[in-house]
């Protein structure tokens, strides 16, 4: 790892889980990429401007699609391709049950098998260390009862994590009650085998941005870098530029008190519309929103004013910084300038 050049930002793109609502960040990424292409040419891709791309659940699939190489060692997918991918393939990847059930549904198994086959076909034999930029995917191993983070940073120290990116995608998207646990194995250089029994990464972190920031700062600290600026510390977060993309929320989401939820039991938890992670995301979208309606939501979000959550009230409040579309245009300019500034220099990661 090389020390960051002066003025060089470390850019992190983070994509939340959200089932079929992943089309919303797809629309936003498509717009951002189009702005980058206006500045730097038609070959510009999101991965060219991202030092780290992280994702959970279907966000993990988007992350690896953006970072996986094609035969020319360029990004397999651009930001503009995500929307089309969802429109064409979401029925093959995402289950569409009528309601959560503890009874096995053969149609879900068929859907899961078809989805896994499609993902493997699209991502091919790419393994984690071959991605064009650092990739971090969150999952949870139900046999070990602990999170498993597939991070490009870790593969040299722990080669058992150097898995097929298609396996990490299927694992991080395996929402309990909707898709089966994903099992696969990897082999270490010494011949030993590691098993993985993975479920949805939303169990760990539906928003993987904090996990990515932690990985980046740990990597910098472990490298004991000698920064150009003597006053710069390895954990100086002013050098991190994070674009964290959510997938919205359903207006039907309800809130419950601890007293009301304490006596639910298994069936109560399965039948109440709880937003704990991405577990119920696909269901809510399939029941309440048709995919074209979700597209309209994503497109409308570009025209919405820039806002942030008031941590006291939980309400989004405008920041008088224009629309999200205008903010993305400004972000594209920043990313383009950083890329030009650091042309010919090593990435900080």
Rounded to the nearest angstrom, the distance between the terminal CA atoms is: 6 Å
Mean of all residue-level pLDDT scores = 79
So how many helices? 12
Radius of gyration: 20 Å
Total strands: 9
Order of helices and strands: EHEHHHEEHEEHHEHHHHEEH
Low-confidence stretches: 1-7, 97-104, 269-288
The assigned structural class equals alpha/beta
Strand content: 15-25%
Bulk shape: globular
Major sheet: 7 strands, mixed
| Residue share in helix | 25-40%
Motif (DGA/G): 200-202
Family: Belongs to the patatin family.
Keywords: Hydrolase, Lipid degradation, Lipid metabolism
EC number: 3.1.1.-
What does this structure look like?
The protein is α/β, with parallel strands linked by helices. Helix content is 40%, strand content 16%. It contains twelve helices and nine strands. It has helices spanning 23-40, 58-67, 79-93, 106-123, 165-172, 202-205, 209-223, 258-261, 265-271, 281-288, 291-303, 324-341; strands at residues 10-15, 52-56, 134-141, 146-151, 182-187, 193-199, 240-245, 305-309, 316-323. The strands form two sheets. Strands 1, 2, 3, 4, 5, 6 and 7 form a seven-stranded mixed β-sheet that branches. The chain has a two-stranded antiparallel sheet with strand order 8-9. It starts with 9 loop residues before the first strand and ends in an 8-residue tail after the last helix.
């Amino acid at each position: 790892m090389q020390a960051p050049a002066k003025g060089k930002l470390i850019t992190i793109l983070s994509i939340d889980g959200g089932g079929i609502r992943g089309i919303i960040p797809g629309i936003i990424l498509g717009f951002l990429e189009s702005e980058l292409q206006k500045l730097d040419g038609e070959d510009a891709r999101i991965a060219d401007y991202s030092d780290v791309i992280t994702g959970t659940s279907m966000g993990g699939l988007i992350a690896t699609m953006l970072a996986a190489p094609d035969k020319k060692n360029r990004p397999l997918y651009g930001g503009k391709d995500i929307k089309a991918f969802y429109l064409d393939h979401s029925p093959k990847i995402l289950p569409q049950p009528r309601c959560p059930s503890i009874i096995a549904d053969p149609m879900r198994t068929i859907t899961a098998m078809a989805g896994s086959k499609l993902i493997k076909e699209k991502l091919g034999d790419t393994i984690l260390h071959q991605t064009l930029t650092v990739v971090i995917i969150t999952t949870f191993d139900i046999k070990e009862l602990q999170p498993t983070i597939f991070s490009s940073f870790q593969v040299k120290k722990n080669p058992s994590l150097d898995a097929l990116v298609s396996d990490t995608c299927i694992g991080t998207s395996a929402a309990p009650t909707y898709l089966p646990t994903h099992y696969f194995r990897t082999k270490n250089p010494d011949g030993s085998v590691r098993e993985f029994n993975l479920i949805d990464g939303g169990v760990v972190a539906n928003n993987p941005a904090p996990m990515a920031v932690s990985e980046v700062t740990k990597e910098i600290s472990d490298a004991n870098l000698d920064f150009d600026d003597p006053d710069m510390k390895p954990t100086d977060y002013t050098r991190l530029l994070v674009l964290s993309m959510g997938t919205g929320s359903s207006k039907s989401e309800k809130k419950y008190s601890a007293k009301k939820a304490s006596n639910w039991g298994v069936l109560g938890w399965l039948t109440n519309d709880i937003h704990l992670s991405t577990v119920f995301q696909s269901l809510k979208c399939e029941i309440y929103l048709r995919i074209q309606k979700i597209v309209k939501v994503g497109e409308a979000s570009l025209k919405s004013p820039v806002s942030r959550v008031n941590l006291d009230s939980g309400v989004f409040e405008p920041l008088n910084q224009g629309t999200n579309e205008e903010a993305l245009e400004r972000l594209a300019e920043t990313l383009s300038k950083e890329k030009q500034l650091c042309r010919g220099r090593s990435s900080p990661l």
